From TrEMBL:
Protein name in UniProt: glycine dehydrogenase (aminomethyl-transferring)
This enzyme's EC code(s): 1.4.4.2
Entry keyword Glycoprotein: no
Catalytic activity: N(6)-[(R)-lipoyl]-L-lysyl-[glycine-cleavage complex H protein] + glycine + H(+) = N(6)-[(R)-S(8)-aminomethyldihydrolipoyl]-L-lysyl-[glycine-cleavage complex H protein] + CO2
Residue ranges constituting the Glycine dehydrogenase C-terminal domain according to the UniProt record: 350-449
GO molecular function, one term: glycine dehydrogenase (decarboxylating) activity
Amino acid sequence: MQLIYEKSIPGRRGIKLPTSDVPAASALPQALLRQEAAGLAELSELDLVRHFTNLSRRNFSVDTNFYPLGSCTMKYNAKVLENSAALFAPFHPMTALLPGGEEFCQGTLGMLYDLGQMLSDITGMDEVTTQPLAGAHGEMTGILLIAAYHAAKGNKSKKKYVVVPDSSHGTNPASAAIAGYEIITVPTAPYGDMDLELFKKAMNDEVAAVMMTCPNTLGLFNPHIKEISDIAHSHDALMYYDGANLNAIMGKVKPGDVGFDVVHVNLHKTFGTPHGGGGPGAGPVGVKEVLIPFLPQPRIVMEDDGKLMLENSNPCTIGRTAGFFGNFGVMAKAYAYIIMLGREGLIQVSEQAVLNANYIKERLKPYYDLPYDMTCMHECVFSASRQLKHGVHAIDIAKYLIDRGYHPPTVYFPMIVKDAIMIEPTETESKVTMDEFIEVMIEAAKTAEDNPQALLDAPLTMPISRLDETKAAREQNVCCQW
Ligand SMILES: *Cc1c(COP(=O)(O)O)cnc(C)c1O
């Protein structure tokens, strides 16, 4: 496929601009004036439409294909939600931050304030900051809040460790390490959750926090959370809840009710914005009351007369973690999403997401190894170990699915499962779609036995077949001639 610049034909135009009625500037220094034309591609509107439409068709998206990428919650997000983000587009983000600017922004601040209240309610927290721009950014913000809490108690040097189960998302230990902590990893027991006895041994007064992904990356919800958080608190360690996958538990359990002190949620998974695809995200962080003094500023606070003001004068704050109030458009979509569904709707979302994952798990169980065979939450994790005997790896099954029109599930993650295949259907897929996918997965398992080479050769329908994935990320060449 040609690059857009290679399609350029001098003089061809997609738009016609009116003649300029602005006088030519004379004061600009000669050195700053452009001597040559900018070299932009010259194309008709139709050329351009075809170019980008064809490019987009070389990609997978939720709008075109089933996308069961585990841990990413690739659900369909209603297009109407984009309208709510567009509503706010005319407002300049500086307005509220100018002296007295709150007066002009009561509606905008009100949306943020209400969203914070609704997320607090959903997570069982006392206040939410919307600043963090992604899940991992929320984690770092949360751990910095915990560090500030310990520092304020005079325990900064005493608290050295963050305890993380090995079934946590990889960003958890990474965020804690970036915030300056050493990591203690607790292995998973055969029952699929953090080994409780080993956890007890790992705990001591030098632990600053216990960070848990719930449900964990095996798609399982830890039934011992209350006990774990009681033990953590007895050592003055705070409990961090990675709520990136809140899709499994909304309206069913509030992390704040079972002992968690901090939680981040990924609005760009559960609440109306797609995850992946390089678009903006948002990882708001909710905290219990003890952590409110350390929250990033400005905080939006409501005065007695109901007016919303920005609070900027707290000496204990960890400071800003992002510009303005975070990715505002994502917040507007989350707000509309929550309002649109309401309490009952959110409960239905998680029930359907969990039901769908269990349906796929039960139907594929006869064909793929299921290392942790129990009721799962929003996703199920198989192992390709049975197919390995025929020389077929998880990656080969993934590539085969591409040929059959499916985005592959997450593979090789979580790392505690050999050749993992992690499937998350989400609540927005119909039984018909899941049944078709299940048939193709069964076909892949049979092909692994009868004709493994067919899987090793896949994909055959794509412009390029297999990339050296490490090299492709480090030596990008997006100009290759397909
Ligand atoms: C996606 C995810 C994250 C990271 O979120 P980003 O927005 O990609 O930084 C963290 N934890 C879990 C469990 C996730 O699924």
